[in-house]
Design brief:
By secondary structure, this protein is mostly helical. Helices cover 51% and strands 4% of the residues. α3 packs antiparallel against α4.
């Protein structure tokens, strides 16, 4: 497979959804494959949606600390041509 592949929020959510083990396994394998090959892409919107879903709608919900850590890890996967200056996520305490 050539080129970049945008990964939607649902794929990341399924990779964490223990209530749907078949989807969880496939999503986790897909995400791992894309990032090992360097072809996966995501957006800041995906990060925000992922956090909202896994800490709100997902049953059981992820603990906020774990979800924050996951988002911070996923932020390293953002790629763009120009220097990207992200505003701090809501949990960052400027102090």
């Amino acid at each position: 497979m050539n080129g970049s592949i945008f990964v939607d929020t649902n794929v990341f959510v399924y990779s964490r959804d223990a209530s749907k083990l078949d989807k969880q396994t496939r999503a986790a394998e897909w995400v791992s494959h894309l990032w090992k090959n360097g072809t996966g892409r995501l957006s800041v919107q995906v990060l925000a949606e992922f956090y909202a879903v896994v800490t709100g709608k997902l049953k059981p919900r992820m603990e906020t600390a774990g979800a924050r850590e996951e988002v911070e890890d996923l932020k390293t996967l953002l790629r763009c041509r120009n220097k990207l200056h992200l505003p701090p996520f809501p949990w960052h305490n400027p102090g």
